Sequence to fold (396 residues):
Amino acid sequence: MYVTGIGIISAIGNNAHETIHSIKEGKSGIGVLNHISTKHKNDIVVGEVKSSNEELKKIGGISDSKIYSRTSLLGIIAAKEAITDAGINNIKECSTGIISATSVGGMGIIEDLYLDYLNPDNKGKYSEYVDTNECGDSTEKIADHLGIKDYVSTISTACSSSANSIMFGARLIKHGLLDRVIVGGTDSLSRFTINGFISLKLLDREICKPFDAERKGLNLGEGAGFIVLESEKTSEDKKRLCELSGYGNSNDAFHQTGSSPEGTGAYAAMKKALTVSGIEPDKIDYINAHGTGTEQNDLSEGIAIERLFWKNVPCISSTKAFTGHTLGASGGIEAVLSVLSIRHNMIYPSLNFHNPMPELGFIPEKKIITVNPVCNVLSNSFGFGGNTSALIFSRT
Fold:
């Protein structure tokens, strides 16, 4: 199946054009936290979308009086861009679905109202707000704004969520259940996730350094990324940005929050993606790594990559020093970046990398590389609970 449209919003841009411009300029979106009140504000840096919720409503053309979580607003903006980019004027012209992923959902609203909600005097007062907490609420609001009714579903498998939504959408098309599907994910920052990652001691107080020997952790981020997948029939007279040629999912079942030391799940997911695509490992031009910047993830992923590619590891980098780790949205955002890599023949740098990891034989790219052409990109997304997913995007 083919990618015919992309949409993205993150700390480095409100759309695809702004995003690729920031990457070319080597401009990280990691900085201070502005839109959330927390006692940790001065202790962390994050990849925050610069616009307020009211500004996001204007960007997304949202004027009704419904309650929207920040997660929903980010998703609407990116999904609308993807639809426009695909040149879709009539969403009902063929069977169309949406599969959106998220891990945060509407936590950003609920955590502000929680104590008031517990007050018996406020019984029933916040019912509409409470509804936004459910992960599916953001998907339903995106579907409403796009006019999609044929199929609406939500996936939440931690940081592999968006990659799994893309994979699931591809399978629905492959088996003839849908002609077209908008897939990806959206997540916003919240105190709940900030506090959770602080308790796990996984955050870096500076811009993260994926695959660096002195890496200290990740930077949380927020945003949304969606792609439009279409069958061969419905896309035959349209602009095809690239093909989703391979996908794979596995689980190393090692730990609730940690990757296995051997990278068992990561290896299995990447190998399955290559098998589905029919592409040999030496034909991969670029690996958009999960690359969180945490001690355990980068080593585990690196070991899995070297096991699969031996001494012929392709160009590799992590874009999370640009955007932050956007949790459930990361697979969608990085899928868009993978498509842009193919369209612009560009391999991205790992910002802030200085010192090679002694355990690994490869080092990530330090500068933008222009390769003509970039034909096959492998994009990894690994989640808590050992849920590991890999996607391959190929030039058509």
In short: The chain has one domain: 2-394. DSSP finds 13 helices and twelve strands in the chain.
